[in-house]
Amino acid sequence: MGTRVSYPAEVKMKAIEMRLAGISVKQVMEELNIKNKTQLMTWMKWYKNGEMHRFHQPVGKQYTFGKGPEYDSEEARLQVENRYLKQQIEVLKKYAELERKWLGKSL
């Protein structure tokens, strides 16, 4: 397994601009010294999905960058938290129901 290469955000954006201009993947890789074509494809996917913040994240930190999702307001954060807690309650209710069935059959 090779060492990880961290490309600056400017290189990533230049690669995307070149691909959008119709330049081949091989030519973009050679010109910008990008080691792997899947890396370029990943950047294109991020660009198409509007995940521009990912271009500034360090290698291997995609899921810890910013310590979780950002919310527009406190109300939005509370709504997400409320939905999560309701889902937990539903799972526990289903488990309790299954447990009653299992114990009922074993008696």
Structural overview:
The chain has 107 residues and is an all-alpha fold. The chain folds into 2 domains: 7-58, no CATH class; 69-107. It is 61% helix and 0% strand. It has helices at residues 9-20, 25-32, 37-48, 74-106. The termini are far apart.
Instruction: Show unreliable segments.
Output: none
Shape: elongated
Head-to-tail CA distance between termini: 55 Å
The helical percent reads: 55-70%
Radius of gyration: 23 Å
The mean pLDDT is 83
Structural class designation? mainly alpha
Tell me the count of domains.
2
**Total helical segments:** 4
Helix and strand topology:
Layout: H1 9-20, H2 25-32, H3 37-48, H4 74-106
Helix pairs in contact: 1-2, 1-3
What labels describe this entry?
single chain; 107 residues; mainly alpha; 2 domains
Short recap of the structure:
With 107 residues, the protein is mainly α.
